[in-house]
Amino acid sequence: MITNDKLFIGGEWTTPSDPARLDIVSPHDQSVLGRVVQALPADVDRAVAAARTAFDEGPWPRTPPRERLAVLRRLNALREARADEIAGLISAENGSSLWFTRAGQPGVGRLAVSYLKAAEEFGWEETLEPSDPSAPFRSIVRREAIGVVAAIIPWNSPFSASWAKIVPALLAGNTVVLKVSPENSLSMSLLADLLAEAGLPSGVISVLPADRETSEYLVKRPGVDKIAFTGSTAAGRRIASLAGAQLKRVSLELGGKSAAVILPDAVLADVIAGLKFGSLLNNGEACIAQTRILAPRSRYDEVVAGLKEMMESLVVGDPADEKTFIGPMVRPGQQQRVRDYIEIGVAEGARLVTGGPEIPAGLEKGNYVTPTLFADVDSTMRIAQEEIFGPVLVVIPYGDEDDAVRIADDSEYGLSGGVWSADEERALAVARRMRTGTVTVNGAPIGFDGPFGGFKASGVGREYGAAGLAQYVELKTVTVPVR
Prior knowledge:
Belongs to the aldehyde dehydrogenase family. By secondary structure, the chain is of the alpha/beta class.
């Protein structure tokens, strides 16, 4: 069992304002994995003060970009050296299957590389020649750090979410207060150790596990210049309103209810194999999960049968078992939420093809949900509109391609989606019409060099690569006379 009676504030392990410890409980069997302290508003005050001083007076914002790059490269190398340990901790505390947490670590590395490459090529300072040759001046455009960044991340994929924010924020010269979920206190303590070892100056970064009330205190606190948030759309709306009152910069990566459009010519075996991962990754607790399956009426029964066979073959159980594909939900409340949605689907008149609200036999101690498939689903049903965040898929029939695009866009969300077809150009034509931030074709993974983020209620701003780095700078123009 892991115990920790310190908080990582300003680059140092320090005594918290409240010594009480929170039990970190296994989602698999409710055993206690660790006991750790949590941050309160007084600890937020110390972290923001340290970050403010480090930004206003310290060396980090004034360090040349190439030197900041070297520190972040070192940080990523330190993470890579402990990738297996990180994967094990996340699996234990989250219930994420070990196959997923292990597969995620190389992705975290590629995410870092996308930001490092962008920083190498970034126009930190550029000279613009006047568009009018007779103008008596030229312009110098500088990209400078914003200031103190409050980065707030969810529990479902903590290293990926934290990397998506702290790497570009630090590369740009900002200082950071990273607020993490209590469930991730163990893996995020390891992250804090890596940050300490990487060689960041004093005060530049803090890592605070804390509840929602303390998170809101951080958002509202003076001295914070930008909020970078990943989480639910409801929480994002609240954060946006609070940040707007103080004109704080904000970027929001929010919820999703992504559609997978299966075109009539798609190779069904490939589709089913791809959706096993694209729709059910991380136990279905993923904002990008393609949980709305749009099937042509001509092949509807075939698609439903294929998904049924696939879902009934999934191994559900101990996330530490390498054979397990679906582990437990992160907490009892999330388990109950998913089970409630399954009952809502039945009440709405959807056809329950496989699964249901019953807990899998022999797994009653954990936060388990039976993988569930609904057919004969109408796009207006709650199970087709609301983010369930669990292993629940719905299959919606469509007529022609226009109908498929209409249904795919019939959502307040617009984060991700997919198109399947034997004709790549046909798939691309449909992908171009969909109103969503990322579309994968024939199961291609989401890349890290292109922008990632959502349309509509799925967020504001973008992450990854140069577009993500640009979220953490202010633009300054200096005009100089031409002599």
